[in-house]
Amino acid sequence: MSIKPILSLAIAAGLLGSTAFAQEVTLRFQHFVSPNSANPKYFIEPWAEKVEADSNGRIKVEIYPFMQMGGSAPDQFDMIQDGVIDGGWVIPGYQAGRFPETEALELPFMVTKSAEEASRVAWDYTQEYLADDFENVHLIAAHMHGRGLVHKKGAPVSDLSDFEGLKLRGPSRPATLLLEKLGAQPIGMPVPQFTEALSKGVVDGGVITWEMSPSLKLDELTDSHTDVAGDYSLYNLFFIWAMNKDVYDSLPDDLRAVIDANSGAETSAWAGRAHDLGDADGKAAMIAGGNVVAEMSPEVTEVIRARGEEVVQDWIADMEAKGLPGAQMVEDARALVAKHTGAAQ
Question: Which of 143, 218, 329, 335 has the least CB density, counted as fewest CB within 10 Å?
């Protein structure tokens, strides 16, 4: 036998061995906020490290903050679906009208102030209503952030009349509908635009979580932070953590199993818990900055909640007009909240 075939066999054997025993995969995931904010700090980065460890290093996960791989926050779903990135963090509500079923969880006073509880609700609700919406990506987690509250320049909101005429940033259609019902002038915008809008006076404030406050410099750009009374959140926002379907399907069985083991209900709860941790950090930072932290009275909260229920009923009518079971979605969402919190609204 000549030396050439022997070398070819050796190379072939080496390639087979590499494929069978040491296949390495690099997954590029992207998000749109600071790596020091709650979800990246307490969920995204630890999730990536766990996937790498569970795969014995055969999967490497690269995380790109601030949309470093291109696009804008509203583009994320399509970038994942089209394979521009391997995976990422998505706010479906940034594409208003595309995923209307997600809005049931974002309605006023729908979920509790515990992001972990709300995220367990989100995963279950997603299995029931959103499988078709997300069929072109591989879903890893569906979760909610923590309590949404009002951050503004000047004195805290203490009465319904204090909303009148305020230009407030809103993250989603349900949030902007609520702000409008309260007498404010809602301005919808993704979170990366909020700091600049505040600094230039485009808005007087906005609704967002405690956890995002430090990275958005709200201790410097706003003066007060006001929550509603009680256990339920003024508003909330729905997220998914997902990867490209073809990339997931192309993984060998054992590496797909690693992704599967780091997906689902408990992973969704982990993502929510990250926001709860971040909320504690963010609130402490605002207090340390000397800002006013306030809570509306139960009486004012009930008035606002009544306006929120108007939003819910308007939303149900809108969904029913589109041929979607709006009333059933709200009923099922509330039942899931009761299931995961042990308390009905």
Answer: 335
Q: Beta-strand (E) ranges in 245-312?
A: 292-295
Q: Which pTM does this prediction carry?
A: 0.90
The CA–CA distances, whole Å, from 100 to 11, 138, 190, 193, 255 equal 54, 19, 18, 23, 33
Residue 341 three-state SS = helix
Structural domains in the chain?
24-145+237-279 (3.40.190.170), 148-235+291-341 (3.40.190.170)
DSSP per-residue letters across 8-46? HHHHHHHHHHHHHH---EEEEEE-SS-TTSHHIIIIIHH
**Tens digits of pLDDT across the chain (345 residues):** 333 333 333 333 344 444 444 569 999 999 999 999 999 999 999 999 999 999 999 999 999 999 999 999 999 999 999 999 999 999 999 998 999 999 999 999 999 999 999 999 999 999 999 999 999 999 999 999 999 999 999 999 999 999 999 999 999 999 999 999 999 999 999 988 999 999 999 999 999 999 999 999 999 999 999 999 999 999 999 999 999 999 999 999 999 999 999 999 999 999 999 999 999 999 999 999 999 999 999 999 999 999 999 999 999 999 999 999 999 999 999 999 999 997 656
DSSP letter assigned to residue 126? H
